């Protein structure tokens, strides 16, 4: 069982965008280093641990550097500013990044498990249903996939975000606040969800199953993509190989990901065996993915969460074959 210090150490090992050891690249130069942002989950984390992309590009003289992020919003801030070239995120962060004028493109998709996101409460909490969240303090990272989940979960009970006290907290800060009893509920995703779920004082109020689809995306910097689309195509080819192999050998994958991320094997197993989880589900941006994002953008604009209307199709990379 993880104690509080171990949990916070796991949740807190994150590189902030302001501390990135990268500068915006000059796209006219030959590519020497592929700069990737990553999070503690998924096929990209596995590729990092295996050195798969380093091996793929070794003969081309391209090195790979990595910067870790706790969530999508700071990752896309760095990507849109040209500090990194490529990275993964949930559904909401790209909308905020596009609205802010970030120089980025949707490059690919992967599907997670809706069971891998949840709203958590303390075991002894009087909150027994989503409707009971009215007037309560709920934490989620603004602009993250948990933001979308919270909006739709509240709606399923006839509530809106205006009916709760929303706290914009990073996963590590929310974990500390949850443990200290400073918030009533916490909307979060794996592996942070799986970590918290193991603690005896935690109770799952609801998962995202039946509430919201689980779309996630790979995004790339616009200038990088224009100059090095061939590299991006190879990245996706390699991630597909890594993901399919990993899904076919889950026992070994769990051990490997645990070493890479520091997330214990029992927690990795929970996250990777949730219903619908598939590391091999790397794909091109489909019409369905664009339609999902456009509907979400329209919804968040109507709710005055986004500051402007967006046309998602304007920031979709057309270069990757289906």
UniProtKB/TrEMBL annotation:
It is found in: Periplasm. Pfam families: NMT1 (PF09084). InterPro entries: ABC_SsuA_sub-bd (IPR010067), Solute-binding_3/MltF_N (IPR001638), SsuA/THI5 (IPR015168), TAT_signal (IPR006311). Coiled coil: none annotated. SUPFAM superfamilies: Periplasmic binding protein-like II (SSF53850). Belongs to the bacterial solute-binding protein SsuA/TauA family. This is Putative aliphatic sulfonates-binding protein. It comes from Phyllobacterium sophorae. The lineage of its organism: Bacteria, Pseudomonadati, Pseudomonadota, Alphaproteobacteria, Hyphomicrobiales.
């Amino acid at each position: 069982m993880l104690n509080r210090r171990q949990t916070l150490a796991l949740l807190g090992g994150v590189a902030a965008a302001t501390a990135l050891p990268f500068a915006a690249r000059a796209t006219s130069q030959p590519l020497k280093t592929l700069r990737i942002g990553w999070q503690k989950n998924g096929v990209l984390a596995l590729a990092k641990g295996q050195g798969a992309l380093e091996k793929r590009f070794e003969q081309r003289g391209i090195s790979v550097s990595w910067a870790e992020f706790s969530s999508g919003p700071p990752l896309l801030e760095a990507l849109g500013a040209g500090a990194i070239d490529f990275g993964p995120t949930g559904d909401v962060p790209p909308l905020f990044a596009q609205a802010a004028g970030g120089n980025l493109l949707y490059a690919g998709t992967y599907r997670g498990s809706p069971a891998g996101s949840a709203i958590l409460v303390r075991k002894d909490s009087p909150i027994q249903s989503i409707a009971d969240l009215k007037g309560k303090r709920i934490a989620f990272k603004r602009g993250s996939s948990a933001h979308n989940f919270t909006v739709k979960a509240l709606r399923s009970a006839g509530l809106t975000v205006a009916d709760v006290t929303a706290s914009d907290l990073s996963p590590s800060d929310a974990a500390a606040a949850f443990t200290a009893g400073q918030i009533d509920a916490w909307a979060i995703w794996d592996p942070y969800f799986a970590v918290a779920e193991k603690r005896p004082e935690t109770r799952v109020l609801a998962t995202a199953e039946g509430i919201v689809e689980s779309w996630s995306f790979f995004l790339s910097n616009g200038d990088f993509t224009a100059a090095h689309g061939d590299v991006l195509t190879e990245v996706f080819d390699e991630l597909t190989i890594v993901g399919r192999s990993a899904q076919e050998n889950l026992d070994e994958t769990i051990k490997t990901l645990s070493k890479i991320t520091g997330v214990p094997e029992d927690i990795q197993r929970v996250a990777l065996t949730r219903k619908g989880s598939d590391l091999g589900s790397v794909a091109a941006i489909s019409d369905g993915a664009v339609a999902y994002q456009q509907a979400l953008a329209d919804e968040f604009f109507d709710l005055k969460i986004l500051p402007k209307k967006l046309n998602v199709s304007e920031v979709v990379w057309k270069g990757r074959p289906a």
